[in-house]
Amino acid sequence: MADSSGLQVDPHLAAFVEDELLSDVDLSAADFWATLARLQERFAPRIAALLEKRDEFQARIDDWHRANGAGSVEDYETFLTDLGYLLPDASPTIDVDRVDPEISEIAGPQLVVPATVPRYALNAANARWGSLYDALYGTDALPQDGELAPGYDERRGAQVIAGADELLDELFPLARGSHAGVSAYRAGTDGLVAETGTGTTGLADPAQYAGFRAVDDQGRGAVLLTRNGLHLEITVDPTTQVGAQHHAGVSDVVLESAVTTIVDLEDSVATVDGEDKTLAYRTWLGLLTGNLVSEFEKGGRTVTRRVHPDRSYTAPDGSELTLPGRSLMLVRNCGHHMTTNAVRTADGQEVAEGVLDLLVSAVAGLYDLQDKGPHTNSRAGSVYIVKPKQHGPEEVALTVEMFGAVEEELGLAPNTLKIGIMDEEKRTTANLGACIAEAAQRVIFVNTGFLDRTGDEIHTCFRAGPVQRKGDMKATTWLQTYEDRNVDVALAAGFSHTAQIGKGMWAKPAAMAAMLEEKIGHPRAGANCAWVPSPTAATLHALHYLRVDVHGEQSRISSRGIADRRRLLELPIGEPSTLTAADITHELETNSQSILGYVVRWVGMGIGCSTVPDLEGVGLMEDRATLRISSQLIANWLAHGVVDEQTVRDTFARMAAVVDDQNAGEPGYPPMAKDLDGSESFQAALELVFTGATEPNGYTERTLTRWRQRAKTNA
């Protein structure tokens, strides 16, 4: 361990800070570590005090439920108010400046990508633009008859072309006829001209024409269209195989897709030491400097991936038009509750991981703020940092103060560091207005998430009784109120045309037809961003924002008033007597298999987010939020006698064999069933359940980290 400013620093991290993070900014390594030491001294004790307050609240709530069961909503509300958990409803108005249009104006898909996988991070950054042809060709978004021919299947190609024509007719209709009847597109300063068998026509709404790239001597060019703030490019290139097949030489239809991306240092990564943290930090820095490169083998050749440049067009008035080639990037830091052994104080205490994340995130942001890279992330001059796992306005206020302290240390203008608030904890949900009020000059994002929020709901009412099955939670009053109220409170605070209101992840990467059917509900609910599991999903989800005017929906929703927060207090307590033995077994098997499938990758392989098969073999995009809800549910049922300890252990043992079979072909996979006692992954999974009642807030990070560290040592 290197020693600097009284801190003990992991050598991987120390070398990264000195040689990479600080290579082109006016800050020495000594100054960096001295700054971290000051921040740690100032904020770590206050973080600890707030964590103690969380525990005190939970202990009092547990005692109340032991005495009252679920109680009535009226009694529960009175108790939480007297406790100081439930605060007076606040009605803030945000006043945030220097916000990029990707956040304030453009509604669209949002990706979340683990910072520990540079290739995926580059894919996400470059997913600002995506091929509609590829998304339709390779997914179930269009029904497929039979197997595809090797290489390019012209039958499928014709189906894709026809599907794209239908979408163009819907979203960008011509004044006369159909896009399917166009034999050539011509675009210039006079607008779009489509040649058909019966003459020429243009767009039904000429305002949808946004620009063009002039046709070259081989007939290659592009038409740029716009709707609801998003762009679509009709790429003309008859020299390609697809263009030669197309009736107007169109080689692709390219959609503006992942408008924003969260580069994740938290729930989707397994970072348990300085080496892991360095890998994650290097990705965030490389995206902002434009120097991140990933090389990998694909199809027998080496592929090199970098961030994409901007896209250039000629505007209708003849001027140059440049559009961003990359997703606007935010970074998600760790919550207040985590510490890291990557840096220790002089007396050996781990530093607050969120403090370290914040300082590194902001210093990396200097490269963008000072235009030191070939590409710009924030044209407005902000650094966007998402802060999860905050409980109530006091914790948000501390985060805001931390942001201000880092700005002062780095000489940044006040409110340069913007905050995204994850609305995933019950105390934050119930006091959302007060949380927003504490960050009124910084907040650019509030987002909901079913899994983490449900995990916190179960833990908070843990002693009230046995909770409902996971699948039944989605129909509960509190959950619908949570989703509605997140939108209502944000709109009342002035988020429209200033900040993002987000919705959660579509968890099935292979089920794109179902996503197209269902996920349009997010923009219709007033959310101007929602999470998707892949760049392909982002391109397909972009169709929803082309169809739905989100700002118009927000205006409509604003008139309905704010959902009654008392409905948040209707607890999801079930009635086990209505469940058959088969129901209970199925719920236990489903959740234990889910836990094991995720934990064995996290602990055994260091993979924080991936597509994990469920009990039926359906691949689900999983991160720690899944683990939290499943482990809390089983722990709750165990505490209330719905299941017993031996049944839980036996079920986990059976499911370990199932998970091993599902991963039999996975390189480097560490099987569990052959030695359950010696499997760090299996023991970690059991610990998550058997300590679920007492682990603060039901979080999983500490258990996972400890067992992953052990697995790395044993390896």
From TrEMBL:
One of its GO terms (cellular component) is cytosol. Pathway: Carbohydrate metabolism; glyoxylate cycle; (S)-malate from isocitrate: step 2/2. It is found in: Cytoplasm. Residues 14-68 form the Malate synthase N-terminal domain. It holds the Pfam family MS_TIM-barrel. GO terms for biological process: glyoxylate catabolic process; glyoxylate cycle; tricarboxylic acid cycle. Residues 584-664 form the Malate synthase C-terminal domain. The keyword Membrane does not apply. Acetyl-CoA binds at V112, R119, Y120, S268, R305, P533. Glyoxylate binds at R332, E424, G449, F450, L451, D452. One of its GO terms (molecular function) is magnesium ion binding. Mg(2+) binds at E424, D452. It is an enzyme of class 2 (transferase). It catalyses: glyoxylate + acetyl-CoA + H2O = (S)-malate + CoA + H(+). The active site is at R332 (proton acceptor), D623 (proton donor). Monomer. Involved in the glycolate utilization. Catalyzes the condensation and subsequent hydrolysis of acetyl-coenzyme A (acetyl-CoA) and glyoxylate to form malate and CoA. Belongs to the malate synthase family. GlcB subfamily. This is Malate synthase G.
